[in-house]
Amino acid sequence: MQPMRDTLRAAFLRVLRLDNRRKEVRRGTLDHIRGFHSDILDNERDITIYLPPGYHDRDELRYPVLYMHDGQNLFEPERAFIPGQHWRLAEAADEVIGARTARPMIIVAIDNTGPSRIDEYTPTRDIKHHSGGKASEYGRMLIEELKPVIDAQFRTLADPSNTALGGSSLGGLATLHLGLKHPDSFGGLAVMSPSVWWDNHIILDDVERFDGRNRPRIWLDMGGREGADGLANARTLRDRLLASGWRYAGNFRYFEDRRADHSERSWAKRAPAVLEFLFPPVELSIPNGS
Q: Does 220 have pLDDT greater than 80?
């Protein structure tokens, strides 16, 4: 009977290993552009590119793209603002792609440049903070300098409906400002814990001035532990967007995480849902040669 038991045990282990292989999440890969130079901003920064699982398997497939600010904090724990506390964004993308709750996407993580971050991520100069106001130039860098390089080097779907922009805090502010200013470039926005307070809530004026053309899909969120003012500002922004034509049923989602603070760890927890909102599952696009 011992040989029979050994045979059954071996068969069971083979089935178990097969089942585990089926459940194993395939991993994407990271590529890098070191020292990307901008003539517009006259500075350099590193760019990290997440390529989804299977990217190298089929050369005919193209993918939507998410451009994200504060690239140091997204993929690599040793480079995060607080070392070890990063968004785990590659893991989030692997998870939702593997579960087929989001379509595979390319993610372009754009490093901030340290001291100039506050200037590049803000639309106006705030007298109280004696800084700010270079978001327009930063947006030109994204659209005129970086995006053409990404589209040339990687298999992207380059149209606005397949191009999203995202960030948190001042990065959330920059995302909304640039998304409303350039709806012909960015069709989806991830506006996470945005700094609505900047320059006496100047971002609300952008919402009111928006002319409604090519209205981008917007994810907006805030954590319950980010302060009473933060929550009030996010709710005011939500209400202004709804009054300006965004709708929960199609192109808008607002989310409050009651236990979340203003941190990379909190944004990491929301990252899978953000990716699912921006890239709902559809068939991958295969170019037709046109």
A: yes
